[in-house]
Design a protein that fits this description.
The complex is a heterodimer of chains A (332) and B (236). In chain A, helix 1 packs antiparallel against helix 2 and helix 5 packs across helix 9. Chain A is elongated, with a radius of gyration of 28 Å. The longest helix of chain A has 34 residues. Chain A starts with a helix and ends with a helix. Chain A has 332 residues and is an all-alpha fold. Chain A is built from 12 helices and no strands. Chain B has 2 domains: 130 residues, no CATH class; 53 residues, no CATH class. Classes of the chains: A mainly alpha (332), B mainly alpha (236). The interface between A and B is large, with 70 and 62 residues.
Chain lengths: 332, 236
């Protein structure tokens, strides 16, 4: 069949498909299109695919092949649009798949937690043994500032507060902490090192501050402040780091997969963990700004609330979604 | 030699061949460092402008404003790419302006998880400065993927508008000269289809390169080439 005969035989089909494409592309991939229209679209797509193959083998002109290629590419794109609602995804995510992904990544979480805890324990023990070791981590100006922040004469305690309103503090915590978490994750792809270092330094500084304040007698002030948000914030930084280490590890040790594929697989798990962690950072910032800094709540109640949040957080990761069907959690 | 094999083996281009579920190969045009760099620049400038505008509007209103500016600025900065890519089928304003689209490496629409990964890893691709790491990775990857693309399994392709096909309306058709291979015939067809993009002088100049075969010059050569092309298209 000569090209012009081929074109006049199928030209109408191409035109109608083009019009349908325009419609489907407008409504974000035809999510809301009815079944009949979609069936017709699929049939036409199959016909045009066939015609593209024919056009190539018969050596029809490049422009015709190109045009058909474009039609099939667009159709391919439209046909693969997700049919599920994003809201549904968010609910299943928090009910089941977040905790499930964290459990699957437990070895990475363990590594990340050790990267945070080991330096923290070491510097803590050193400061308890001999308080002057705090100067190996913090400068004297920083020490003075921290002592001022947590001194019992302050009406409100916490970092960077100086009488600012709770909302401003909330904004700062969200911006600062979540940003750190996301960066710790992303840079982990560079062979894990940035994530591990960031976790280690975080552990070092947090522990140095808390132990120093305990040693000089401000223990109640600092412990009652951090108790409330500690569960979510520390878990979130550990999870961000763990997700980053997952990426780096896929690059270092891809196993039997090509590195590219290993990275892609690690990425699809890691992104769920880091998104969950980002959400935890935001909740932690909320607690830190509006609860932890309240002076009139007695330390005992703050310890109790903090302990409850630790139990809740840990049981969520241990048990949430254990019975959910595996199909939803393994879907990307 | 089949025309298809010919184009696969003799041309150096940025086409990526994929197979659809109907078993036919499609070709996607992958965007390179320069075009994507400009798109990135547009997006980053827009992000900075939005965050600056928020800061300028909210911060003078007091401490509450500072808090709101920090939260909103944070969300705009980190969700800009994701929101556009999910709600607009992989097209951010910068990509829209440059005619690009982010898609999965198999040509299917990008999902939220892919978009989040490639957007978060912009931080790494930026390192040490000016997206240097991203540029190096793109150049080495063969499919122009930066680190974020590799981890997310995505590529950025040209998103060309469908242009209606215009074929010059030529009545006369001439018989084929002898010994024209399939490849040569394809050249005639392509020339005819591309003629509207050429200046008349250039079209004549190209047609005249066939003088040894056709023994024609000037406008006559052009008419003859068109007639032969028409002969190939509709049969003579």
């Amino acid at each position: 069949m000569k090209q012009s005969a081929f074109e006049s035989a199928h030209g109408d089909l191409w035109l109608s498909f083009e019009n349908q494409l325009a419609k489907f592309e407008k409504v974000a991939g035809g999510r809301s299109r009815g079944g009949g229209e979609r069936d017709q679209f699929v049939t036409e797509f199959e016909q045009i695919s066939k015609q593209l193959a024919i056009a190539k083998t018969r050596g029809y002109s490049l422009e015709l092949v190109d045009h058909l290629n474009e039609l099939v590419t667009r159709g391919h794109f439209v046909l693969h649009h997700s049919q599920t609602s994003p809201l549904n995804n968010i609910v299943t995510f928090f009910v089941a798949s977040f905790a499930h992904e964290v459990r699957k990544a437990r070895y990475f979480v363990a590594v990340a937690a050790s990267a945070l805890l080991l330096p923290a324990l070491v510097i803590g023990a050193m400061i308890q043994y001999s308080p002057h070791y705090v100067t190996s981590v913090l400068s004297s100006a920083e020490i003075q500032q921290i002592e001022r922040m947590y001194s019992t004469t302050q009406s409100r305690i916490g970092r960077e507060r100086s009488g600012a309103s709770d909302i401003a503090a909330f904004g700062f915590y969200v911006y600062n902490n979540t940003q750190i978490g996301l960066t710790v994750f992303a840079t982990g792809v560079l062979f894990c090192l940035p994530s591990i270092l960031a976790l280690g330094f975080n552990g070092l500084f947090i522990s140095a501050i808390i132990n120093h304040l305990s040693v000089i007698g401000l223990g109640t002030s600092v412990w009652s402040f951090v108790a409330g948000h500690s569960a979510l914030e520390l878990s979130a930084i550990v999870l961000s780091g763990a997700a980053g280490i997952m990426l780096g590890y896929a690059l270092i040790h891809p196993g039997s997969l090509p590195r590219r594929e290993a990275l892609r697989r690690a990425g699809s798990s890691a992104v769920k963990i880091v998104l969950g962690a980002a959400f935890m950072f935001i909740v932690a910032a909320f607690i830190e700004a509006f609860w932890s800094s309240l002076q009139f709540v007695s330390p005992e109640i703050k310890y109790l609330v903090g302990a409850c949040l630790w139990v809740l957080t840990l049981s969520y990761f241990l048990f949430a979604g254990r019975n959910a069907n595996r199909e939803t959690s393994s879907r990307t | 030699m089949q025309p298809d094999q010919l184009t696969e083996h003799t041309l150096v281009d940025s086409l990526l061949t994929l197979e659809t579920f109907t078993g036919v190969d499609i070709k996607l045009r992958i965007a390179g460092v320069y075009i994507r760099g400009i798109a990135r620049l547009i997006d980053d400038v827009l992000r900075i402008l939005i965050v600056s505008a928020l800061t300028a509007l909210l911060v003078p209103t007091g401490v509450v404003g500072i808090g709101l500016a920090a939260v909103l600025g944070f969300f705009v900065w980190w969700s800009y790419n994701v929101l556009f890519e999910i709600l607009n089928n992989g097209v951010t304003p910068g990509k829209h302006y440059m005619g690009l689209r982010a898609v999965n490496a198999d040509g299917t629409p990008i999902r939220w998880a892919n978009s989040v990964i490639r957007s978060l890893l912009l931080v790494v691709d930026f390192l040490p400065v000016g997206y240097l790491l991203g540029i190096i990775t793109m150049s080495l990857s063969g499919t122009q993927q930066r680190i974020g693309d590799i981890v997310a399994g995505t590529i950025v392709v040209y998103n060309r508008p469908l242009k209606s096909r215009r074929i010059p309306d030529i009545q006369r058709s001439a018989p084929l000269p002898e010994h024209l291979t399939a490849e040569d015939q394809l050249l005639f067809l392509s020339f005819q289809e591309r003629m509207s993009e050429l200046s008349p002088e250039r079209a004549i100049e190209l047609a005249e390169t066939l003088e040894p075969l056709l023994h024609k010059q000037g406008q006559d050569a052009l008419i003859e080439v068109n007639a032969i092309a028409q002969g190939i298209r509709i049969g003579s």
